[in-house]
Amino acid sequence: MKQTDKQHSIMTWRKAIGSLLRWWWVGAAAIVAVAVAYIYKGVTDNPPVSLRVVHNTRIDVTPEQIMAVRDIGQWEFLTINTEEVVEWEHKRTFGTDRLVRIYQGTLRLGVDMQKVSDGWFVSLPDSTAQLTLPPVSLLDERFIDEARTRSFYERGTLTPDVLDQLYAQAQQKMRRRCLTPQNLQAAEANARQQFERIFRQMGFKRVVVKFDGKQ
């Protein structure tokens, strides 16, 4: 009787183990499903950080470099040497006063960097330097070389007012003849070349030069 009970107990135990082995994958699958759901929820609530490479093409220049360009001051881009003959005549009862003078002048066209506005230089992200310069102008109003002025013909009585009058006439004629759109455009073209050269040396691939008052 005892032997029979023992065999029965062994059979029962074997059946339990067999049943357990037969359904173990169900439990494993349930555990995997729970783990997947947990991971999915974690990813949804806290998405992973997306990494990408961003190429920064902005050129960094120091304030000292920009100040050095501004501190150039008056920058001459076109020099025009000219000569003007001016005549004065005054008729009197017993004669005529007359003076013919030859004036030499040097007109310098360029940019006065001390007149740049705030934000005249901008570094753009695509390695571009954008410059806004003061308009090209006559850098020195006293362009007549009085030491080289000579009288070609002189007769009669002359007063200081006459000399001042002739000087003003010569100055006006020189300005009118030299400050032409063609000469101003030539000075602007030279300015663009010089500024492009400077800022390309700083590392910029493209330099855009504009002048105040122009599109």
Question: How would you briefly describe this protein structure?
Answer:
With 215 residues, this protein is α+β, with helices and mostly antiparallel strands. It is built from 5 helices and 7 strands; from the N terminus they run H-H-H-E-E-E-E-E-E-H-H-E. The protein has helices at residues 2-22, 24-45, 63-70, 160-178, 181-201, and strands at 74-92, 95-112, 121-124, 128-133, 137-138, 144-155, 206-211.
Please outline the major beta sheet: 4 strands, antiparallel
Low-pLDDT parts are none
Shape: rod-shaped
Care to count the β-strands?
7
Q: Estimate the strand proportion.
A: 25-35%
Mean pLDDT: 80
Tally of alpha and pi helices:
5
Binned, the helix content reads 40-55%
Number of domains: 2
Secondary-structure element series: HHHEEEEEEHHE
What does this molecule look like?
With 215 residues, this protein is α+β, with helices and mostly antiparallel strands. It has 2 domains: 44 residues; 149 residues, no CATH class. Helices cover 42% and strands 31% of the residues. The strands form 2 sheets. Strands 1, 2, 5 and 6 form a 4-stranded antiparallel sheet that branches. A hairpin with a 2-residue loop joins strand 1 and strand 2. The longest helix has 22 residues. The protein is rod-shaped. The model has no long low-confidence stretch (mean pLDDT 80).
Strands, helices and their partners?
Elements: H1 2-22, H2 24-45, H3 63-70, E1 74-92, E2 95-112, E3 121-124, E4 128-133, E5 137-138, E6 144-155, H4 160-178, H5 181-201, E7 206-211
